[in-house]
């Protein structure tokens, strides 16, 4: 499919049958575009769009798809492992895992301004990816999980996340098999491709990852508190059947402390803020109404299991006046 307007002939994909038809068509299209021996490089974040795109391309050309997964240290607990398992074992693609954690966290040390943090993360991401691309010979194609809202909105939000900012000398032709699909259609296709449910139905996750949830200058210990508290929240939401029902839920760790008490002794530790919202388009958002006993249980788990945390605050601010993320 060429151009940037969704073809009228493309039926809305709502069922496994329609997804199968779409997959077959796209496998044929990718084969035709890439040819008998062409190779495709793809930056795989583990998000729905890049994962579905990678799964589709690998069905078409097997291990001539080379996925690069950059671990910037700002991913959620278990994510790098899952990406490596799915695309290193389940699908036939080649997977290059780049541990760039120190490079990102060293560059971010002492940087408190949110936009500056985003810029650093975006720039290093492109640098790391371009370095990997240059190490590989004979790659003409770049796979991208662009979806239709990206084309329609093409705003700044995801700019660093797509690798559109790659140096021109790399001179790639784009392979974008899901570019005319809406998010719900991408999920139906992902399910049909056999991707795990927690990849297909995952909530939106910002490109700068947990970096914008570790408020102010990121420190490794506070970042761990974000990651561990987020894992507990996701586990409890899944247990309570809220996965895929609440639009986005996560934790934030601000850069201030308060006093508390543990085992009869005074503590001086961080709070964890919990945010759970529902929205249609992320332009406005409502706070999800949650069961109070569940909130108490999550509070108890976070304060007893996460190092350096003595308090949990629940953010019940709608958007506006608050944005969904804190930074
Ligand atoms: P806000 O905080 O603006 O967020 O209400 C709206 C939605 O966008 C996500 N978000 C981002 N996504 N890069 C992204 O790819 C970013 O820099 C970024 N900042 C916010 C946020 O998680 C929410 O879903």
Brief overview, please?
With 327 residues, the chain is of the alpha/beta class.
What do you see in this structure?
This protein is of the alpha/beta class and 327 residues long. 39% of the residues lie in helices and 17% in strands. The protein is built from ten helices and ten strands. Helix 3 (79-90) links the parallel strand 2 (65-71) and strand 3. It binds xanthosine-5'-monophosphate. Residues 118, 157-158, 161, 204, 206-208, 248, 282, 319, 323-325 line the site of xanthosine-5'-monophosphate.
> What is the total domain count?
2
Strand order of the largest sheet: 3-2-1-4-5
Q: Give the name of the CATH superfamily of the largest domain.
A: HUPs
Q: Give the uncertain stretches in residue-range form.
A: 156-163
H/E series: HEHEHEHHEHEHHHEEEEHE
Please state the second-level CATH architecture of the largest domain.
3-Layer(aba) Sandwich
Instruction: Summarize the amount of helix as a percent range.
Output: 25-40%
The count of DSSP E runs of length 2 or more, i.e. the number of strands, is: 10
Annotation field: number of helices: 10
CATH topology of the largest domain: Rossmann fold
Supply the helix-strand structural class. Answer: alpha/beta
CATH class of the largest domain: Alpha Beta
| Nearest-integer average pLDDT | 94
Question: What overall form do the CA principal axes indicate?
Answer: globular
Rg, please?
Answer: 21 Å
Ligand catalogue: xanthosine-5'-monophosphate
Strand content: 15-25%
How far is the first residue's CA from the last residue's CA? 37 Å
Largest sheet: 5 strands, parallel
